Predict the structure.
Amino acid sequence: MTGLEKAQAIRQRKNGLRLATLTAYDYPTARLLDEAGVDLLLVGDSLGMVVLGFPDTTQVTMEHMLHHTAAVARAKTKAIVVADLPINSYDTPDIALANAQRLIEAGADAVKLEGGIRQAEKVRAITEARIPVCGHLGMLPQRVLEEGGYRKKGKTPEQSAALLEGANALIEAGVFAIVLESVVAETAAQLTKDIPVPTIGIGSGGATCDGEVAVVTDLLGSYPWFVPPFAQPEADLASSISQAVTAYRGRVQGS
Ligand code: KIV
């Protein structure tokens, strides 16, 4: 299947089987998640924190994204591979298109960028070049420094209306799905009812959206130094690694 066909299939899941989405940043993880049946693999710029050790996503570059997207793409997954356009890589429609093309050449099926109305022209430039785009509304991690922290969105009728306006602008520009991050549950559920493309929630309530996305290290318990309050770990890899290394050290050192 081409990237466009995969994106079309995701779009058709509106009101269907919910979309199971996880981030992936490397080849073995991408293979394992794909073999376990995940629908979307997101090469998220969250890799800045959970792989590269930065405090937030604002230092992630195109070079980082290309390197990790290529690694994930080598897994040749059935799941659609969506790569994040990092901060400052989509400042104008021309720059957005050029960088989206670089991510596609690195092996992504689609790209994702953050924001609503002010990004619509950039989304349109990319979709007109037949590159699928996923939107991202609500809390926008690339704006954490401007906003002075991570804040819940969709708390007031005005904020909810702004989210709907942003979603409609993105849909008009051709997105196949929209991530809703840290949106109040009732607002996320209403937005999901109101728009024709699938919503994929994170920190936006239980089953309020057409699917969920989780950062893979939150699911696997492999990044114990910061766990967001909404995370629901299904494993404790940090403890498993610690036990394995202690056993190995004992074997090597005879203690
Ligand atoms: O970068 C990322 O992992 C993301 C998800 C949190 C949606 O954008």
Remarks:
- The first helix runs from residue 3 to 11.
- The pocket of 3-methyl-2-oxobutanoic acid is lined by residues 23, 42, 44-46, 84, 179, 181, 202, 213, 215 (CB under 6 Å).
